[in-house]
Amino acid sequence: MNGEQDLARRGREIIDRSLYMVIATADPSGQPWASPVYFAQSGYRQFFWISAPEAAHSVNLRDRREVGIVLFDSSVPINTGQGVYISGVAQELPAHETAEGIAVFSERSVSHGGEELTVADVREPARHRLYRATAEAVYVLDEHDERVEVSL
Fold first, then answer.
1. Which tens digit of pLDDT belongs to each residue from 44-56?
2. DSSP 3-state assignment of 138?
3. 53-86 burial string, b = 16+ CB within 10 Å, else e?
4. Residue 55 gets which letter from DSSP?
């Protein structure tokens, strides 16, 4: 296996093992905000989470769809950590587009001891909405701490 394939495999493993991702958004003035969210992924390119529409990151996405995401294992010893870095766009999914994403999210949630969710759980008047981030680029650091774009 070559270096890029090894990095891609490592990236998939990190995503598969992670329960949470940190999503970075910015408000209209550029003020950053980072939030950890439980997530489910589809094809290593789409990442789904549920949040209150009033949460800071949810509000930020209304005006600025660009996001940065990082996934990592915070329990590993110092100097051994690895992560996956994603740049992309995100949005609250409109009600008519939630069926596939909530199925992906619900399946993963149930597998981790969470509850099964339905479309009704993420539509008004429900407290939460479904969000999707779509990766435009995915990076893993190589042995020299250089960022390498990988195809997962």
1. 999 999 999 999 9
2. strand
3. eebebbebbeeeeebbbbbbeeeeeeeeeebbbb
4. S
pTM tops 0.90: yes
Report which of 20, 17, 143, 21 is spatially closest to residue 80, judged by C-alpha positions: 143
Q: Which two tokens stand for residue 132?
A: 């999707």
Tokens of 42: 């589809």
Query: 111: domain range?
Result: 3-149
State how many domains the chain has: 1
Question: Which of 114, 17, 115, 33 is CA-nearest to residue 67?
Answer: 33
Which CATH number goes with the domain that contains 32? Answer: 2.30.110.10
Q: How far from chain centre, in Å, is Cα 63?
A: 19
What one-character DSSP code corresponds to residue 94? Answer: P
- Which phi and psi angles does 135 have, rounded to 5°? -70, 130
